[in-house]
Design a protein that fits this description.
The chain starts with 10 loop residues before the first strand and ends in a 22-residue tail after the last strand. The radius of gyration is 61 Å and the shape is rod-shaped. With 729 residues, the chain is mostly beta strands. The protein is built from 3 helices and 33 strands. It is 5% helix and 29% strand. Among the domains are: 59 residues, Light-harvesting Protein, CATH 4.10.220; 82 residues, Gp5 N-terminal domain (OB fold (Dihydrolipoamide Acetyltransferase, E2P)), CATH 2.40.50; 30 residues, no CATH class. The strands form 8 sheets. A 6-stranded mixed barrel has the order 12-13-17-20-19-18.
Length: 729
């Protein structure tokens, strides 16, 4: 109940830097809404014509509404606007606007990047950086909210930024004016809201007496309307590309219509279910609204009240105030104008409310910034790294030019994908970039929280390999100077491939290479060629091979060389030929071997020579032949051996000479036959030993004839002559 003294001011405005009675309130208008800044506008008078605006602007002020014997109602804030207007003989007219401290965030227009924060951490950070103390705000959240990997404030005020982020999750706020301060209360459920400071019901009384001391609701209208019934959201998370990120919700199964939206930027199914429920509740909370009029000074947005004495019983229930517009006047009390008598102050408000059992979600009215085109940024690296930061998914980190933080070493942004001309599971096309490379990026659907790299661009610090000086060349050159250049200069077309160090080619199956003209290969050091199976090489004309040092050829199986013409081998020093088993040499015509010095031939087993015609061996000096076992020489015709000097034949055991017909032993000088033991000469028919005119003839019938000029028989012992007959001349 209101109990006030006649002709006493009901409304007072106290400036923290002025005396309490420095100004008097003539009238005011105020407006409050959930999730909106409140604003109270005052027409003031003062006897001081020189009030200093600097001592008032941006300073704390309190609007006090006297409620008789009850505690006065206080609305705290700061003065955002102050005007000095006209004057009367007794007073000077002023005008002031009272707003919450949160209003200061509308003065901060900026772009910032926030990482690894949930909504409570994000809003707290912005509020504190804007100058609000921890006692100026509090959170009353029933739900848990995801941590945001990357969140961007882009070309917007701090107020708009946190407002749209709260609206996104269906979180709302209101102002609770306590004894000395207004507190920003941020909540996600009407269950957390307090009732107005009155225990009894607020009565509905359309016939209220203006002079009544009761605060009542004089008019109440219920507006119900059809709203969209079913809501469906869908999104895509590239970290889980096959996941079904769709969610739907319907509070009123009878309501028609479908709201479908894509790209609300949720990461998983549970977040999608939470958001689609919030979207449905946002629409549903506007389906039934009570609009009223009254004079209850306790009505403030964000509080509950209980209505009583309405003719419709089901309306006598609890409501949540979503909007209140109030106005009051007490100017007549000060008799500013001649002929105006003092009168009772007036107060009236209009309000909007919803049933307390309905969910409330703030309408998403705050503009969402978009980046419709492209922007540039700088790729970041870790501390001291030459290359830009790149993770296991090939993503980069960039520092956007509007980021005012001093974060470095890849901490200024989340990882973003960089568009490539070709990609797939385990394959693709990617040139890793260096730190400070300028990147062109855009946002998915313009959403500043969803950046994606489009490519990199040159600048004076990162010049292009193709310029006006080589505009006919298409160049791929890495920072390590590995290079592929396609030169399209007319008449000098060329493909240039350069590797700063190594070059590795790995081909799983076949490789075909065709060269229309010449090929030249220069290898500065070693070359190794390994062929797992066969190797064919065809040379249409000549082939020249020059080896400055040694050459080794190892053949695991057979080795065959076919030369249709001549073959010449020149060996500057020694040549060794080792054949484990058999060697066969077939020459269609002549064969000549010329050895300038010694020649040694070693055969581990048998050696066979087959010569279709004549064979001639000429030895300039000695010739020696050592045979470890037997030696056999067989000639289809004659065998002739001749020595310019001595000729010696020696056998370690027996020596046998056999002729099919005649055998002749001839000596130009002495002739000797000796034996270590016995000696036998066996002739089948007749044997003649002839020296000059002397002969000894032995015949197969046993006759022995000795003819000579003189015949001497001498014995150191007996001489025995025995025969059938012994004849003497």
């Amino acid at each position: 109940m209101l109990h006030y003294k006649s002709n006493q001011p009901l409304y007072k405005l106290h400036f923290s830097e002025l005396d309490d009675n420095a100004v008097k309130v003539l009238s005011f208008e105020g407006e409050e809404s959930i999730s909106r800044l409140f604003e109270y506008r005052f027409d003031l008078i003062s006897s001081d014509p020189e009030l200093d605006a600097k001592s008032i602007l941006n300073k704390k002020a309190t609007f006090e509404i006297t409620r008789g014997e009850d505690e006065p109602l206080k609305i705290h804030g700061i003065i955002s606007r102050f005007e000095q207007r006209g004057r009367t003989p007794d007073y000077v007219s002023y005008y002031a606007v009272l707003v919450p401290k949160l209003w200061r965030l509308t003065l901060n227009f900026s772009s910032n990047v926030f990482q690894k924060m949930d909504i409570e951490q994000l809003v707290s950070t912005v509020l504190k950086e804007a100058g609000l103390a921890s006692s100026d705000f509090e959170f009353q959240l029933n739900e848990s909210y995801p941590k945001l990997d990357y969140c961007v404030q882009y070309r917007e005020t701090d107020f708009n930024f946190i407002n749209r982020r709260l609206e996104h999750y269906g979180i709302f706020y209101y102002f609770d004016h306590r004894e000395d301060n207004e507190v920003l209360v941020i909540t996600d459920s009407t269950d957390n809201l307090k009732a107005v400071a009155q225990e009894e019901d607020i009565f509905y009384n359309p016939n209220r007496d203006p002079l009544s001391t009761s605060e009542t609701v004089t008019e109440l209208v219920c507006q119900e309307k059809v709203v969209t019934g079913k809501f469906k959201l869908k999104d895509y998370n590239y970290e889980h590309p096959t996941a079904d990120l769709s969610a739907d919700n319907q509070i009123d199964s009878e309501a028609p219509g479908l709201f479908y939206d894509y790209g609300d930027h949720f990461k998983d199914k549970s977040e999608g279910n939470m958001l689609v429920k919030v979207r449905n509740e946002e629409a549903y909370s506007a389906s039934k609204v009570f609009r009223g009029r009254g004079d209850c000074r306790l009505f403030h947005a964000g509080f509950k009240y209980k209505l009583g004495k309405h003719y419709r019983e089901d309306w006598n229930s609890e409501f949540v105030l979503t909007r209140v517009r109030a106005r009051g006047s007490q100017g007549a009390m000060f008799a500013i104008f001649a002929g105006v008598s003092k009168n009772v102050p007036t107060y009236e408000n209009v309000f909007e409310s919803i049933p307390a059992d309905m969910p409330y979600r703030p309408p998403r009215l705050t503009p969402i910034p978009r980046i419709p085109g492209i922007m540039t940024a700088r790729l970041e690296s870790g501390a001291g790294d030459e290359y830009a930061f790149i993770d296991d998914h090939g993503r980069y980190r960039m520092k956007v030019p509007f980021d005012l933080t001093d974060k470095t070493n890849g901490e200024a942004s989340r990882t973003i994908r960089l568009s490539q001309p070709y990609s797939g599971p385990g394959y693709g096309f990617h040139f890793p970039n260096h730190a400070d490379t300028e990147i062109v990026w855009a946002c998915v659907d313009g959403n500043v929280d969803r950046p994606i790299g489009l490519g990199t661009v040159p600048n004076p610090n990162n010049t292009s390999p193709s310029t006006g000086n080589n505009k006919a060349q298409s160049v791929i050159r890495t920072a390590g100077q590995n290079e592929l250049t396609l030169d399209d200069t007319t008449g000098s077309e060329n493909i240039y491939l350069h590797g700063t160090k190594d070059w590795t080619i790995d081909i799983v199956n076949d490789k075909n290479q065709r060269i229309g003209n010449n090929e030249s290969t220069n290898i500065g050091n070693n070359q190794t060629l390994s062929v797992g199976a066969n190797r064919d090489k065809t040379v249409g004309a000549s082939q020249t091979e020059s080896v400055s040092a040694n050459k080794t050829i190892t053949v695991g199986g057979n080795h065959s060389e076919t030369i249709t013409g001549n073959m010449t081998q020149n060996v500057g020093a020694n040549k060794n030929e080792n054949i484990a088993i058999v060697k066969s040499l077939a020459i269609g015509a002549a064969y000549q071997v010329s050895v300038g010095a010694a020649m040694n031939e070693t055969v581990g087993a048998a050696k066979a020579e087959e010569i279709g015609a004549a064979k001639s061996v000429n030895v300039g000096a000695n010739s020696s032949e050592n045979v470890g076992a037997n030696k056999s020489v067989s000639a289809a015709g004659n065998i002739s051996e001749s020595a310019g000097k001595d000729f010696s034949m020696q056998a370690g055991k027996d020596l046998s000479a056999n002729a099919g017909k005649k055998m002749s032993l001839s000596s130009g000088d002495d002739f000797a036959i000796s034996g270590g033991k016995k000696g036998v000469i066996t002739i089948k028919d007749e044997l003649t030993i002839k020296v000059g005119k002397a002969t000894i003839t032995l015949k197969k019938n046993g006759d022995i004839s000795i003819n000579g000029k003189k015949i001497n028989i001498k014995g150191s012992g007996d001489i025995v002559i025995k025969g059938k007959k012994v004849l003497q001349n």
